[in-house]
Structure formats: C-alpha cells, structure tokens
Specification:
This protein has a three-stranded mixed beta sheet with strand order 3-4-5. A two-stranded antiparallel sheet has the order 1-2. The chain has seven helices and five strands. The chain has one domain: Four Helix Bundle (Hemerythrin (Met), subunit A) (Up-down Bundle), CATH 1.20.120. It is mainly alpha-helical.
Length: 162
C-alpha cells in the first residue's frame, strides 16, 4: 500500500510538470521566498533518488546530493527521472543506515526502506503544499484534490463528510 501511495504522489508531481512551462518552473515566486517551483521539485526528486540510488549499498545520506540544476530548469528531464523512480520503487523492505550531518562521521541511525519511503512521501507532500501556494498565480494549472495534503488528513476529511 505504501509503495502505491508514493507512486501516486510521484504521478501528481509528473502531472504538474507536464502542465508547467519551463518559464513557470523557473520563475521566482515571492510566496516561496523567491524560490522556484523547479527548486522545490528538484529537492523532492533528489531526496527520493538518494534513497533509491543507495538502496543496494544500504547507507542513505540525504545531505550528500548532486543538486542538479537541470532538474529544476528543464521539466522534461525532471519528468524523466520521476518516471524512472516511480518504476524503481517496488523493492523489498530491508534494514538501512541513515547518515546525517548532525551526527559524527562514524555514527549512523538504523532505519529501513519502508520507513524512508514514508519519510520521502511526507517530504514530497510538504513541498507540494508550498508549491500549491505559488500555483494560485497560475490558475490554468490543474492539480488533484490530494496534491500537498497528507493521507491522514484526506482520510479525516472523508470521515467528517459522512
């Protein structure tokens, strides 16, 4: 179930990118502290990439990322990577180590693949919520009702409506 929800989240990001022009992707939005939608999307892509690209090695480090400018300026390249990652998500759960710059070089946290998938889902939703604020300037862009909203919030709203 978790993998399917993450795939759906990546699909939402792909659908958004298909609608944006590269100019809209790279425009600095005051509502985002002059960041761009592309910068937020690159950040989402690179974190999930850190997990998927280091799954076999078993050591995840979200701080050591490439920060590839092409992913924030070229929607076709961003879509290509998101589609690749969407296919690669189906992996068995396994123990992983998380290296983080708030720890010394020789200390790591124990984690697992599913826990890190959940982290990436929540991280993507958080950035989607920020992107959604900028999208108010682009009324021609259509996003799903779940874009930028946590699954637990969607479930709660569904229960309240009954």
């Amino acid at each position: 179930m978790l993998v399917q929800i993450v795939k759906q989240n990546l699909t939402e990001n792909i659908e958004l990118l298909h609608q944006l022009t590269n100019e809209e992707l790279t425009l600095a939005y005051p509502e985002l502290s002059n960041a761009t939608i592309g910068e937020h999307m690159r950040h989402i892509i690179e974190l999930i990439g850190s997990l998927l690209n280091n799954y076999e090695k078993g050591i995840i480090n979200y701080d050591k990322r490439k920060r590839d400018v092409i992913l924030q300026t070229n929607k076709i390249e961003a879509i290509k990577i998101l589609e690749k990652y969407r296919v690669e998500l189906d992996k068995p759960n396994k123990q992983l180590l998380l290296k983080h710059n708030c720890f010394s070089d020789n200390k790591m946290l124990e984690t697992n693949y599913f826990r890190e998938l959940l982290y990436n889902l929540e991280h993507s939703i958080h950035h989607q919520a920020l992107i959604k604020v900028a999208l108010y300037r682009l009324p021609h862009i259509k996003i799903s009702d779940s874009f930028g909203i946590a699954p637990s919030t969607l479930e709660y709203k569904k229960q309240c409506a009954q």
